[in-house]
Amino acid sequence: MKRVAMVLGLAVAGAVVALGSAFVVDTTQYAIVTRFGRPVRTYRVPGLHFRVPLVDQVVRLDARLLMTEPPTAEYLTLDKKNVVARTFLVWRVAEPVRFLQSVQLRDAAEARLAAVTSSEIGAALGSVSFDALVSTDPEKMRLGAIVDGVEQRVRETAAREYGVDLVSLRVERLAFPQQNEASVFQRMRAERQRIARQFRSEGEEQSLRIRAEADRERARLIAEAERKAAEIRGQAEAEAARIYAGAVAADPDFYRFVRALEASEKIIDKETTVILPSDSPLMKFLLGGAEPAR
Prior knowledge:
- Among the domains are: 61 residues, no CATH class; 110 residues, Tetrahydropterin Synthase, Chain A (2-Layer Sandwich); 25 residues, no CATH class.
- It is built from seven helices and nine strands.
- Strands 6, 7, 8 and 9 form a four-stranded antiparallel beta sheet that branches. Strands 3-2-5 form a three-stranded antiparallel beta sheet, with helices on one face.
- A hairpin with a 5-residue loop joins β7 and β8.
């Protein structure tokens, strides 16, 4: 009976030891086995693993991508302008042992990352003027390059000091302190009005130039048309004179007779009395006599 009890006791003790030595690593975790507080093994592959019971402890770290939003902070630019920046960070644990030794917990890691980010952003914004952050001129705008530089420096510090891989750092919002918004908006409106006046002035100048060019072109076309019309009239008059001259040369007497008729039509009406010599060709023609002399 005692032997059976001993066997059962040993079996129970073995089961307890076996259960105490086995542990499971999830796909979303890293597992670090520590012995008397010192890391001895790191498990990155999910599955069943073993440890020395009652001696080794298992510390689990989140292996997923994590997002942190540091508190919104106010900064001062090189030209003494106050700006408020709100950022966010995407990161993950890259070196579990270093992370455990430096920060241990996620909350502590987020606090350290927020402090480093705030320090780097303050130094970066303090070295540039306000126009480099907010400007209508693309050549002056440098916010993207400034954030990229901050991201690189924070990434290096996070990897070196805390075993953290910084995946992304971005400025979520860049604004003005509430007490400065009215003056800033007024200055922005004045700047837009100045740009609008400049555009209107340039438009009026271009309009005047276009109208002047159109007037010059109109005057040129009219002068050219009048020149061509005068040339055509001259040619027509010359042709008419040539035809008249040919007709007169062909029969001068008939031409004189026709001209006399035309003159008579212009000067004789119903109340006009005309006295003609008896030997006048026109008299003979009117009386139905002989044909007018040719």
